[in-house]
């Protein structure tokens, strides 16, 4: 087995969660802005793609070097061992980005990297003809940051938020990776009630159920690196067997999702079925102001409307006030809400125990955390 330098990419503010997940999987790692670096073999590529809930992608770092000129970019790219990764028939499109760098033309950088890889492969495969690119896909990226080039190969394919259970969605669905992150940042355990009062298409409750039953988030999907000849199909079979063996399908769960829109409630039920939870999760049409319960020590996680559009603001602020009143009766519960509204606490009527800056897509938000008391030990 080979050793690779790997990067699990993450949304800003979630790097520490990804690092914790990697440590739980047994990998030493180092968190940086937007990514967590770790070393691993072919099995590590398969395991991390299958198990990481909060990361965006897993990439192989082929090389990193300074590049202030096109010549430097070309020569340093050509020096890398591309033949260790790309077979002769590989399809290898090159994408790119450039931030605060001398080489700011992304299209030129992509073309130069592509040419350098072709030259390298020609010399290694002893061919003078153009590569047909009819084989497996290797998505290469050249990323330039402050004149440092990083060349990576994506092992995931579709982003890791694509779990494979979303049959339908609403207008502004929360990404599965962010939903999992919101849950990971709470004090919830599977033996406690869990409620999402703004469930939309059901993403947060479904992610909670997957965490509660220790189901690998990538269990029902495929990854681009499964088509690579140098990762044995046996490795993928082994990691899927491991996921099957460690899942706790018998773990009882008390998870509910509510939404004001009955159409979204139906979509949530459909997605829950698709994820394999059937009737295990409860979805109901309900306004947040009407939520009451006799259960204790539960956890509420929600992604309410933000009131981003000016006309929506008064209605959203009124709803925050109603929510605050409804939740004030839940003495033992913990509440977690993500919103971009700067005056959320004022309208909710209570100051958060803790606040965390997060990004929902490109929207800067705060995650307001209101801690309830710890449940008594059983």
Automatic annotation (TrEMBL):
Keywords: Methyltransferase, RNA-binding, Transferase. SUPFAM superfamilies: S-adenosyl-L-methionine-dependent methyltransferases (SSF53335). GO terms for molecular function: RNA binding; rRNA (guanine-N2-)-methyltransferase activity; rRNA (guanine-N7-)-methyltransferase activity. Gene3D superfamilies: 3.30.2130.30, Vaccinia Virus protein VP39. It comes from the Bacteria. Residues 44-155 form the THUMP domain. Pfam families: RlmL_1st, THUMP, UPF0020. Coiled coil: none annotated. InterPro entries: DNA_methylase_N6_adenine_CS, RlmKL-like_Mtase, RlmKL-like_Mtase_CS, RlmL_1st, SAM-dependent_MTases_sf, THUMP_dom. This is RNA methyltransferase.
């Amino acid at each position: 087995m080979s050793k690779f330098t790997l990067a699990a990419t993450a949304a800003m503010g979630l790097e520490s969660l990804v690092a914790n997940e990697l440590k739980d999987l047994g990998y030493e790692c180092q968190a940086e802005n937007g990514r967590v670096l770790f070393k691993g073999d072919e099995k590590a590529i398969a395991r991390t793609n299958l198990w990481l809930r909060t990361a965006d992608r897993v990439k192989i770092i082929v090389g990193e070097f300074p590049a202030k000129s096109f010549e430097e970019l070309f020569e340093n790219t050509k020096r890398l061992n591309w033949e260790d990764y790309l077979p002769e028939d590989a399809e290898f499109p090159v994408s790119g980005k450039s931030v605060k760098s001398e080489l700011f033309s992304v299209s030129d950088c992509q073309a130069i990297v592509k040419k350098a890889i072709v030259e390298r492969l020609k010399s290694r495969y002893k061919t003078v003809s153009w590569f047909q690119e009819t084989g497996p896909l290797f998505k290469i990226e050249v990323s330039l940051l402050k004149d440092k080039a990083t060349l990576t190969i994506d092992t995931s394919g579709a982003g890791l938020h694509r779990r494979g259970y979303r049959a339908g969605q609403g207008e502004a669905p929360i990404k599965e990776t962010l939903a999992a992150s919101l849950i990971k940042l709470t004090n919830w355990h599977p033996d406690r009630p869990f409620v999402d009062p703004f469930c939309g298409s059901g993403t947060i409750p479904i992610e909670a159920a997957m965490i509660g039953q220790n189901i690998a988030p990538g269990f029902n999907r495929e990854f681009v690196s499964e088509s690579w000849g140098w990762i044995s199909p046996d490795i993928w079979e082994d990691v899927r067997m491991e996921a099957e063996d460690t899942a706790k399908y018998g773990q009882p769960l008390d998870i509910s999702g509510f939404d004001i829109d009955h159409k979204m409630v139906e979509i949530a039920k459909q997605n829950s079925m698709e994820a394999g939870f059937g009737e295990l999760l409860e979805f109901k049409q309900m306004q947040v102001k009407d939520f009451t319960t006799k259960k204790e020590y539960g956890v509420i996680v929600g992604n309410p409307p933000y009131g981003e559009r000016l006309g929506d603001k008064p209605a959203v602020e009124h709803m925050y006030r109603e929510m605050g009143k409804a939740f004030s009766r839940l003495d033992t519960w913990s509440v977690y809400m993500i919103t971009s509204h700067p005056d959320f606490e004022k309208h909710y009527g209570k100051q958060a125990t803790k606040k965390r800056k997060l990004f929902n897509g490109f929207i800067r938000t705060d995650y307001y955390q209101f801690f309830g008391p710890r449940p008594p030990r059983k």
